[in-house]
Design brief:
4 domains; 11 helices; alpha+beta; flat; 337 residues
Length: 337
């Protein structure tokens, strides 16, 4: 590929035009340089002046090879996050990468601009442990919520004094004389503005998978786990209580009841069961039931609404993931596994 250089003499001036490119160290476009034509020959630079120019040129010498410069000129890289994501889409369209790989890479890119406040579980939805609660109450909380870690508070919920691992309760069962404070792990506190990239690095470094999120006034804003962060990259991480998405949002069970996703629309539930649950303020059945219950639903709780009995099968982040639904009065088996 050649580059044409045209030289013109206009009004006693020598004007040379060439394509500006990374090959010659210029940005894209057309550059012009002017030299005045004169009868007097240019003076020869001094020895000191020549040495200075030589050092200056060496200092700023472009290390890129010819082919690299040519490639950068013909195929300039993305200049923004949106352009980078478009490049990933093109790579998928050209079958360079798969759909799942593209989604994960997009997640990594988008996560760079996200903070702990964007993905945390809000304080009202947190499952907390009272340090002064009896052992049976602690055990029921662990069973009902199916969490592995719990923030522990003393006197008031703002006063979080540590993190309790569910597995450590086994030590209390074997040795009741133990003080629960001796089982607590140190709580990690992070601001809402904490970047997810930095937070993930800290989670990996200190092997602590839960942090308490604090707002600008020093109050508890919520909590965030390493799972919440990783889900921004790989998508939702299903646990043993989750139902595969391809099984639908409403499906029948052998005992004449139905398993219903908390994210199912109120309209769809009304149509499926032939009842009127319409509420202009709520789109999902999970939000509607939680509002009517008046508190954050717990696993195993039941509530009757519109002639239907809703039993909470699984919650995540304080939101109901799955209900067991049956007409009021119909006997069903309760399966929380």
């Amino acid at each position: 590929m050649g580059f044409e250089v045209q030289i013109f003499l206009v009004s006693g001036r020598l004007i040379s035009a060439c394509w500006r490119s990374t090959i010659f160290g210029y940005p894209y476009g057309l550059a012009t340089t002017e030299h005045t034509v004169s009868d007097t020959p240019p003076s020869r630079p001094s020895k000191h002046e020549g040495r200075h120019d030589s050092k200056h040129e060496t200092k700023h010498e472009d290390k890129r090879g010819f082919l690299q410069k040519l490639a950068e000129m013909l195929h300039p890289g993305p200049d923004s996050t949106d352009e980078l994501i478009e490049t990933l889409v093109e790579a998928q369209d050209n079958e360079v990468i798969g759909a799942q790989s593209r989604e994960m890479l997009e997640g990594v890119i988008r996560m760079a601009d996200m903070t702990a406040g964007d993905v945390m579980v809000a304080a009202p939805r947190m499952d907390l442990v009272n340090i002064n609660a009896p052992f049976d109450e602690l055990l029921h909380l662990v069973i009902d919520t199916a969490h592995s870690r719990f923030p522990v508070y003393e006197d008031e919920k703002e006063n979080i004094i540590g993190i309790l691992m569910a597995k450590d309760l086994l030590k209390l069962q074997r040795a009741p004389e133990l003080n629960i404070k001796a089982l607590l792990r140190p709580a990690v506190f992070v601001p809402e503005s904490k970047g997810l990239n930095d937070l993930l690095r800290e989670f990996r470094g200190n092997r602590n998978h839960l942090a308490i999120v604090i707002d600008e006034f020093g109050r508890t804003a919520g909590l965030i786990t390493i799972e919440d962060v990783l889900e921004q990259i790989v998508g939702e991480i299903e646990d043993e209580f989750d139902i595969a998405e391809d099984e639908g949002d409403i499906f029948g069970l052998p005992d004449r009841s139905f398993r219903v996703s908390g994210e199912t629309s109120v309209e769809r539930v009304s149509e499926a069961f032939g009842v009127d649950l319409q509420d202009a303020d709520f789109d999902t059945i999970g939000g509607l039931v939680a509002h009517r219950m008046g508190h954050v639903p717990k696993r195993g709780e039941g509530f009757a609404l519109g002639g239907l009995q809703f039993t909470v099968l699984h919650t995540k982040g304080g939101a109901v993931r799955w209900f067991k639904v049956a007409p009021v009065g119909v006997q069903t088996s309760l399966d929380l596994t």
